[in-house]
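Example S7 (structure tokens).
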């Protein structure tokens, strides 16, 4: 399984947001950091086929995601919104969980759901959930399809310590199952626990730096307007 971006350019209202980016993501865990507006979310949405590039190619396991149907793309790539409420369309959590299974025709991996939420939430209206509950439901309702590629946009937002641990467990589970997992975050405090294979620094729509976490220098982190590691990591 390889996610391959070839010379991808994304423009919003004549402004270049992703500027000719090429990169291969193999099985493993990647963390993309970078200041607000660097283009992290746009990059994830482009890999998911939600945002169409005006130039370049995105191949997921050889499938051109730009031309793929919604169904085909959803089977390959799970994109979890930063804001959990954006994705909700159903009246009950249980319907939210089965929506992607109806779309893709997959049977679903309920073990993924169980890592995040219990059945006591199944009959709740998703819009009445607390931020943390909603975040876990939104992650579960996308990744239940057990796609080979998981894109997590600020997955630790809204979560308490227990929620963060649940998401860390989920990521370990995905890593063991050889998925391509890309986490976008401004919060480098979670990187130590994630133990990513690679940290990617984005700036103004480009990748400006790549390193193993322990190789990332303070200067690079500060330069990219992410809080210094000593403020966030114990
Ligand atoms: N639909 C859109 N229309 C216009 N500009 C957008 C749209 N989505 C994002 N942007 C702009 O693109 C830039 C990159 O945004 P984003 O990818 O969300 O960055 P990040 O996730 O790194 O904070 C920002 O300046 C943002 O305001
Ligand atoms: Mg973002």
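Recovered sequence:
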């Amino acid at each position: 399984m390889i996610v391959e971006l070839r010379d991808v350019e994304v423009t919003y209202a004549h402004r270049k947001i992703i500027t000719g980016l090429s990169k291969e993501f193999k099985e493993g865990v990647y963390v993309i950091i970078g200041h607000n507006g660097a283009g992290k979310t746009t990059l994830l949405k482009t890999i998911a086929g939600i945002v169409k590039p005006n130039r370049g190619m995105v191949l997921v396991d050889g499938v051109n995601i730009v031309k793929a149907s919604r169904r085909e793309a959803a089977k390959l790539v799970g994109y979890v919104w930063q804001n959990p409420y954006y994705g909700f369309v159903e009246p009950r959590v249980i319907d939210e969980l089965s929506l992607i299974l109806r779309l893709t025709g997959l049977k679903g991996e309920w073990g993924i759901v169980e890592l995040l939420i219990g059945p006591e939430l199944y009959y709740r209206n998703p819009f009445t959930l607390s931020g943390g509950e909603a975040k876990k439901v939104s992650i579960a309702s996308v990744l239940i399809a057990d796609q080979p590629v998981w894109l997590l946009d600020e997955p630790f937002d809204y979560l308490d310590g227990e929620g963060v641990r649940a998401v860390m467990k989920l990521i370990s589970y995905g890593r063991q199952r050889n998925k391509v997992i890309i986490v976008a975050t401004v919060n480098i405090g979670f990187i130590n626990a994630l133990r990513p294979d690679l940290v990617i620094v984005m700036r103004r729509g480009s990748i400006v730096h790549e390193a193993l976490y322990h190789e990332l220098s303070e200067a690079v982190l500060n330069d990219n307007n992410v809080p210094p590691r000593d403020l966030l990591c114990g």
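Notes on this example. Residues 221 and 227 are 7 Å apart (CA to CA).
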